[in-house]
């Protein structure tokens, strides 16, 4: 396959938020002074240029502006970042350009500006469709405001998606099914549905440890997962990845870059990348602290603090770990080509017998609906 036909993504991380959500362990920072967007835009452009010098000749098939809260950026800043990508790489005519946005009225008023700057898809951090849950999750919007923002997104963009968090405190499967039906009515083509996880270092972790935050037990969490699959399947948004649901053809192409093991550049504070340089896969990561990243880029042209060379075993394991998250599964021959050895047929046979995986008519290895809830164990077994 020629380089031009391969997927290549660019991820750009905007690290700032108005407030830190109590469940969030992403690289996001609150600043009370105004952010110097012009300086950050220049640094993004510089890091894009340096990265393109290391990985020249790529055709960009998707761009994802994540965070943090990228919808706090002025449309002109977004435009400057997209212009820099277009200046240093060739951009596909059908490029997917996604921007993550908070569903507040202030940010929704900027949607037309983002559209004019070149964004053609938004992903809204709705998280819940009832006010009590939103308040408990530390969100700064109401359910009504979220639905109003979805309506503005619908008018501004052909493609939009939103996120919801489930397995919230006191949530029952019946409540979640009702919320999901409302979400699917509004969602058009794509939903990202994540189980609430308690991450170390977050305020929720401390509350959970102290017994002040109760999340559903394993049986209820499993029932909520099953309701998610059943409801989305029935209403035309089946899972194409363990947490992502879409109508056929509406999958997020940028996220498929990660899960299919393709190349992507990571730009901005705390961004990760995977680049093939001289036939070797590089795993890159930049400085997480925004101001420290800024100074690194202004001094060195990039903010990289990690640039690891992945050996064939590491690359194959990553391919397995990411690829088995997808409903389409993996091609075992690609695994063999990456690792230099085939997957163990005895392990495959055992997992098939247990009903955790299937090998379809084309030879692709896929995790079954009963295998997905124990995906980590399936991956570990195959990789051993």
From TrEMBL:
<dbReference type="InterPro" id="IPR007197">
    <property type="entry name" value="rSAM"/>
</dbReference>
<dbReference type="InterPro" id="IPR013785">
    <property type="entry name" value="Aldolase_TIM"/>
</dbReference>
<comment type="similarity">
    <text>Belongs to the anaerobic coproporphyrinogen-III oxidase family. HemW subfamily.</text>
</comment>
<dbReference type="InterPro" id="IPR010723">
    <property type="entry name" value="HemN_C"/>
</dbReference>
<dbReference type="InterPro" id="IPR004559">
    <property type="entry name" value="HemW-like"/>
</dbReference>
<dbReference type="InterPro" id="IPR034505">
    <property type="entry name" value="Coproporphyrinogen-III_oxidase"/>
</dbReference>
<keyword id="KW-0411">Iron-sulfur</keyword>
<dbReference type="Pfam" id="PF04055">
    <property type="entry name" value="Radical_SAM"/>
</dbReference>
<keyword id="KW-0949">S-adenosyl-L-methionine</keyword>
<feature type="domain" description="Radical SAM core">
    <location>
        <begin position="2"/>
        <end position="238"/>
    </location>
</feature>
<keyword id="KW-0963">Cytoplasm</keyword>
<keyword id="KW-0004">4Fe-4S</keyword>
<keyword id="KW-0479">Metal-binding</keyword>
<protein>
    <recommendedName>
        <fullName>Heme chaperone HemW</fullName>
    </recommendedName>
</protein>
<dbReference type="InterPro" id="IPR006638">
    <property type="entry name" value="Elp3/MiaA/NifB-like_rSAM"/>
</dbReference>
<keyword id="KW-0349">Heme</keyword>
<comment type="function">
    <text>Probably acts as a heme chaperone, transferring heme to an unknown acceptor. Binds one molecule of heme per monomer, possibly covalently. Binds 1 [4Fe-4S] cluster. The cluster is coordinated with 3 cysteines and an exchangeable S-adenosyl-L-methionine.</text>
</comment>
<keyword id="KW-0408">Iron</keyword>
<dbReference type="Pfam" id="PF06969">
    <property type="entry name" value="HemN_C"/>
</dbReference>
<dbReference type="InterPro" id="IPR058240">
    <property type="entry name" value="rSAM_sf"/>
</dbReference>
<keyword id="KW-0143">Chaperone</keyword>
